[in-house]
Please model this.
Amino acid sequence: MNKDQNHIDDLISRSLAGEASAEEEKQLAAWIAQQQENNQHYQKIKQAFDLSGEYFANKASKEPDLNIDQEWNHFLSQVNKNKNKTDNVRSLVPERNPFQLWTRIAAAVLLVVASGFIINYFVSNNNDTQFQTADNTLEISLPDGSRIALNRNSELSYASDFGKTSRTVTLTGEAFFEVERDPQKPFIIKINEATIEVLGTSFNVQGYNNRNELEVVVETGTVKFSVSEANKNVLLKAGDRGVFEKQSKQLVSTTNTDLNYLSWKTRKIVFMESDLRSVVDALNKIYNANITMAAQVPETCVVTVTFDQQSLEAVLNVLKTTLNLTYTVKDGQIEIIDAGC
Model:
């Protein structure tokens, strides 16, 4: 491994572990954008990082007092034992001194686990690449340069030949897409009964299996939203919201009025003369919270406020003071029992 490549691999590992400075992140992003081979190299290391993370995260969840040093030594011994066994094994990392790469990757993973962060689950089988989240979000870079933010409890997959003749992904849950433009290869998303087709744009898709609505909100560009079951499609432009109601089989297009449709990603929340019930609904969605209301709340109980990168506890404290709320917290459930506004 030459000096430059060694530096890049160290930089990637630092970035994955969340230790890279803003300048290092900028340097890495520039290197990835230089050529397709660089992006592929980064993706392979990131996939190895995620795959390693699954192992260590599972260990950490089962063993709250996980001995990081012991696990590190065990992992090294396993890599040493198997590093020469290459038959019928497809490596997830490039063939540049894989042992050194694996040790750096594992070290980065352990740093993340030791810090209490949730590791994302990655698998690669049957020629498909799949990403899955639990109580966390995930930023994904696709081989064509498109970027995806995957929300909690969501799953994204694509075939190994993605980008060669077509660009198709399958989504379950919610994600925000920033698609690189390619008029020759439309970007297609398969989700439940629907198909979303774009050339190059940014938009949010929400289609959890346990919800009645499948929603697309367009931020930039144009999106074609089709539902084969209803034999209908709509063309959505920036600022539009398309909704397919699964039970009624209705597909409609309206102007988006939800200021917080992307708050799960940006963590910026805006309430404008919003009633308490709609505020609670928004917080439950954004923070994956369990807030209920036992009190009868008057319609005049409204709030105008903006939160930016605030924790749920901080948000509730502001609402408590503003609306004179009384609430209880037990076993992760928050119940509003009185509102004096």
About this structure: The first strand starts at residue 121 and ends at 125. The chain is about 35% helix and 35% strand.
